[in-house]
Design the sequence.
């Protein structure tokens, strides 16, 4: 398979979130057949659609170049999550506090809908914590089937999000 640019959303709101994102970026850079090309700055954001109070999240987006197929990339992301103590089997719903969340947002220009994997991520255009960091590293990016990602920023302007300290790739 030739290389493709993929975008990965990173998020954490438990156990030193900034550190978790920095560790995740380093772990991504060690995945075979994958190279981290760019990473946005960190943003602190309010939980979205939360059913219970929880801490704010720290979020970022990474652009990677990979020759892995989509399912293999997803499996690599889930291994990194597990190493940082993410336990999906204990989660009783969506939008719960977590040590690490790695979402495959985009995989080239492909649209994928198979069991366990939907790309583009179905809610990415509704989330400031995805769109704002994505605009940092790819301001002219198009979401397949939706159009320019930056045009959705106005729709999420009421979601609380603010830049925070950068993470280190080294």
Sequence:
């Amino acid at each position: 398979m030739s290389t493709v640019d993929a975008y990965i959303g990173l998020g954490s709101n438990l156990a030193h979130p900034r550190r978790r994102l920095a560790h995740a970026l380093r772990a991504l850079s060690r995945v075979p057949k994958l190279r981290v090309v760019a990473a946005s700055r960190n943003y602190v954001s309010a939980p979205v659609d939360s059913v219970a109070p929880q801490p704010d999240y720290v979020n970022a987006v990474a652009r990677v170049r990979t020759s892995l197929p989509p399912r293999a990339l997803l499996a690599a992301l889930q291994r990194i999550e597990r190493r940082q103590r993410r336990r999906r089997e204990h989660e009783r719903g969506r939008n719960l506090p977590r040590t690490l969340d790695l979402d495959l947002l985009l995989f080239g220009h492909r649209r994928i809908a198979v069991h366990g994997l939907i790309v583009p991520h179905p809610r990415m255009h509704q989330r400031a914590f995805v769109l704002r960091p994505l605009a940092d590293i790819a301001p002219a990016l198009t979401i397949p089937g939706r159009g320019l990602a930056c045009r959705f920023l106005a729709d999420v302007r009421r979601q609380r999000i603010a830049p925070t300290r950068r993470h280190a790739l080294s």
The radius of gyration is 15 Å.
